[in-house]
C-alpha cells in the first residue's frame, strides 16, 4: 500500500520538480509585461494628479489603487489578452480605493477630496491604455514565435481537433500543440500524432515539457481522465477542460473561447496555495485552546471510561494519513476488544459488549476528543477526510474509484463527507466523492462551514411533537321534507316570550 501512495506522489513530484524553461519564461514574461505597464500608468496618473490637485490626495489614492491592483490580479497568462475583458476589473480596482480615500481624507482632516477623484480618473484612463500597449507587445512576441506554451490535447474527437487546428493556425494564442492523447486513436493526419493513452498523461506531460493540458472528448473513459488529471496536482502545467454540451455553455469571465469551443481553467490545487499554510496555524491554535477548554470534560470521560472498561482509557490504533503514511490515532476506549479485532472489524456500534458510557461517548462523538492531540502533533487537521485503518484502505484502494486521491491532504477530525451524513455504515463511493470534492474545492471558508455544521450536528435536537390530524365532524344526511311530510309532522307548540 505504501508503494502505491509513493508511486502516485512520485509521478507528481517528477512532473513538478523538473524545470520547464518555456513555462518559466513565457508565464513570467506575460505577467512582467502587464505589471510593468500597470506601474507606469499608476506613476503617471499619480504624478498628473499631484501636479493638478496636490501631492497628498494623489499619493494616498495611488497607494490605495496599487494595493487593489495587487489583490485584483488579472495578470496571469491567457489565450486571449483582451482589454475589454479587463475594463470592469480595472474600473473596480480604481473606483473602490478612490472612494475610500475620498471618504477618509476629511475624517483625517486632510484636504483634497476632489484631487483623489481626479487622480483616480487619470489612473483609470492610463491603465486602459497601458493594457492596450502591453497586450499589443505580447501578441507581437507571440507572432515572432516567442513566449509560446507547449500543449497536449486530451481527446481527438471534434472539439479536440478544432482546438488543435485553431491553436496551430493562430499564433496570437501563443500555444504550440505537441500532440494528442487518446485511447484507440490512429495518427491524426495534418494535426499531430497520438502520443499515447490517457493513463500515461502524467508521464507524457513530463516527457514533452508540456505547460498546458486541454481536456476535450475522445475514446477514453471519463474516470480515466479524472485520475490522470489528479496525478498532475504537483505538475506546474495548467489544465483546461471543455465542458459537456459546450454548445449550450454560457461564455463568461472564467471561460476562454477558442474557435467557438469554451475552455474552463481548473483551479490549481488549493493545498499548494499560500492560504493552505494558514490552515496549519489555525489547527495548532484552535486545538491547543480546545484542549484547555475541554480538559474538565476529558477528565470526567476518562474516569467514566476507566470505571466501565478497566485500565487503558485511551485506545490507540494505526490509521492512514497524508500521502498514505501511517500514524497512531487516539480515542477514548468504548469497549475492550480482542487483540487485532479493531483493525479488521468495520463497526462496533451494535456490539453487545458496549456499556452505557461507551454507547454514550460514541453516539455523541466524545470518544474522538483525544484526536485534538493528533491535530496538535500534525498527524491530522481539524477538517479533512476522516482517517481509515490500513486494512480497509488497501481494500478500498483496489475497489473504490478515486479513493486513494483522498490522501492528498491531511486527514481530519471532521470532514465534508461526515457532515453530509457519510459515516458509519454508509457508501464508501460517496465518501470518496465528497472527500475529493472537498480537496478540489478547498478554502478557509469551506473549513469554517464544515466546523459550524459539525457543531450543529453534535447539539441534540428535540424530536418534534407529533401533530395528529383533527378529524372533520361527521356529515349527517339532511332529510328531504316533502309537503306531505310537512303536513303529517306535528309542530312544536308556540312559546310566548
Key terms:
transmembrane helix, disordered C terminus, 497 residues, alpha/beta, phosphotransferase activity, for other substituted phosphate groups, transmembrane, EPS_sugar_tfrase, 11 strands, 3 domains
Would you spell out the secondary-structure blueprint of this structure?
Blueprint lengths: L1 H16 L3 H33 L1 H18 L10 H25 L5 H31 L5 E6 L3 H12 L5 E7 L12 E3 L4 H7 L4 E4 L6 H9 L7 E4 L13 E4 L2 E5 L8 H20 L1 H15 L4 E7 L5 E7 L8 H4 L11 H8 L7 H7 L3 E3 L6 H10 L12 E3 L1 H4 L8 H13 L3 H15 L24 H6 L9
Parallel strand pairs: 1-2, 1-4, 2-3, 4-5, 10-11
Antiparallel strand pairs: 5-7, 6-7, 8-9
Task: Walk me through this protein's architecture.
There is one protein chain. The protein has helices spanning 2-17, 21-53, 55-72, 83-107, 113-143, 158-169, 201-207, 222-230, 274-293, 295-309, 341-344, 356-363, 371-377, 390-399, 416-419, 428-440, 444-458, 483-488, and strands spanning 149-154, 175-181, 194-196, 212-215, 238-241, 255-258, 261-265, 314-320, 326-332, 381-383, 412-414. The chain is α/β, with parallel strands linked by helices and 497 residues long. The chain folds into three domains: 21-143, no CATH class; 148-266, Rossmann fold, CATH 3.40.50.720; 274-458, no CATH class. The strands form three sheets. Strands 3-2-1-4-5-7-6 form a seven-stranded mixed sheet. The protein has a two-stranded antiparallel ribbon with strand order 8-9. Strands 10-11 form a two-stranded parallel ribbon. Helix 1 (2-17) runs parallel beside helix 7 (201-207) and helix 10 (295-309) runs antiparallel to helix 12 (356-363). The protein is flat, with a radius of gyration of 33 Å. It starts with a helix and ends in a 9-residue tail after the last helix. The relative contact order is 0.08. Keywords: Membrane, Transferase, Transmembrane, Transmembrane helix. Its main location: membrane. It holds the Pfam family Bac_transf. Residues 1-23 are annotated as: Disordered. InterPro entries: Bact_transf, EPS_sugar_tfrase, NAD(P)-bd_dom_sf.
Amino acid at each position: 500500500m505504501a508503494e502505491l501512495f509513493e508511486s502516485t506522489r512520485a509521478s507528481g513530484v517528477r512532473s513538478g520538480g523538473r524545470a520547464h524553461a518555456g513555462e518559466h519564461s513565457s508565464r513570467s514574461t506575460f505577467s512582467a509585461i502587464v505589471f510593468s505597464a500597470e506601474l507606469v500608468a499608476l506613476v503617471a496618473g499619480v504624478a498628473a494628479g499631484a501636479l493638478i490637485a496636490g501631492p497628498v490626495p494623489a499619493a494616498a489614492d495611488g497607494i490605495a489603487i496599487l494595493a487593489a491592483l495587487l489583490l485584483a490580479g488579472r495578470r496571469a497568462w491567457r489565450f486571449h489578452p483582451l482589454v475589454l475583458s479587463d475594463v470592469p476589473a480595472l474600473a473596480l480596482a480604481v473606483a473602490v480605493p478612490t472612494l475610500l480615500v475620498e471618504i477618509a481624507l476629511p475624517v483625517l482632516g486632510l484636504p483634497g477630496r476632489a484631487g483623489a477623484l481626479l487622480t483616480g480618473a487619470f489612473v483609470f484612463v492610463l491603465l486602459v491604455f497601458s493594457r492596450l500597449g502591453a497586450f499589443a507587445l505580447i501578441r507581437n512576441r507571440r507572432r515572432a514565435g516567442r513566449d509560446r506554451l507547449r500543449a497536449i490535447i486530451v481527446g481527438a474527437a471534434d472539439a479536440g481537433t478544432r482546438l488543435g487546428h485553431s491553436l496551430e493556425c493562430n499564433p496570437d494564442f501563443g500555444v504550440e500543440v505537441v500532440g494528442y492523447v487518446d485511447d484507440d486513436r490512429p495518427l491524426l493526419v495534418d494535426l499531430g500524432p497520438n502520443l499515447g493513452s490517457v493513463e500515461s498523461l502524467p508521464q507524457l506531460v513530463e516527457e514533452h515539457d508540456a505547460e498546458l493540458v486541454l481536456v476535450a472528448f475522445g475514446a477514453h473513459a471519463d474516470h480515466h481522465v479524472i485520475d490522470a488529471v489528479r496525478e498532475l496536482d504537483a505538475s506546474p502545467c495548467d489544465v483546461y477542460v471543455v465542458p459537456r454540451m459546450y454548445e449550450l455553455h454560457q461564455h463568461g469571465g472564467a471561460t476562454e473561447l477558442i474557435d467557438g469551443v469554451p475552455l474552463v481553467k481548473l483551479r490549481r490545487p488549493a493545498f499548494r496555495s499560500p492560504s493552505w499554510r494558514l490552515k496549519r496555524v489555525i489547527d495548532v491554535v484552535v486545538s491547543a485552546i480546545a484542549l484547555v477548554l475541554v480538559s474538565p470534560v476529558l477528565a470526567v470521560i476518562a474516569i467514566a471510561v476507566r470505571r466501565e472498561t478497566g485500565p487503558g482509557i485511551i485506545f490507540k490504533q494505526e490509521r492512514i494519513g497524508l500521502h498514505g503514511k501511517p500514524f497512531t490515532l487516539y480515542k477514548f476506549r468504548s469497549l475492550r476488544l480482542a487483540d487485532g479485532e479493531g483493525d479488521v472489524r468495520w463497526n462496533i456500534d451494535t456490539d453487545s459488549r458496549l456499556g452505557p458510557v461507551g454507547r454514550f461517548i460514541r453516539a455523541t462523538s466524545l470518544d474522538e476528543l483525544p484526536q485534538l492531540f493528533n491535530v496538535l502533533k500534525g498527524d491530522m487537521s481539524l477538517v479533512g477526510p476522516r482517517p481509515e485503518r490500513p486494512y480497509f484502505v488497501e481494500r478500498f484502494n483496489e475497489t473504490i474509484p478515486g479513493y486513494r486521491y483522498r490522501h492528498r491532504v491531511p486527514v481530519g477530525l471532521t470532514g465534508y463527507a461526515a457532515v453530509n451524513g457519510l459515516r458509519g455504515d454508509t457508501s464508501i463511493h460517496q465518501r470518496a466523492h465528497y472527500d475529493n470534492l472537498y480537496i478540489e474545492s478547498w478554502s478557509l471558508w469551506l473549513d469554517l462551514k464544515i466546523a459550524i455544521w459539525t457543531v450543529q450536528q453534535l447539539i441534540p435536537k428535540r424530536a418534534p411533537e407529533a401533530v395528529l390530524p383533527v378529524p372533520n365532524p361527521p356529515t349527517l344526511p339532511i332529510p328531504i321534507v316533502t309537503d306531505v311530510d310537512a303536513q303529517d309532522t306535528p309542530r312544536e307548540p308556540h312559546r310566548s316570550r
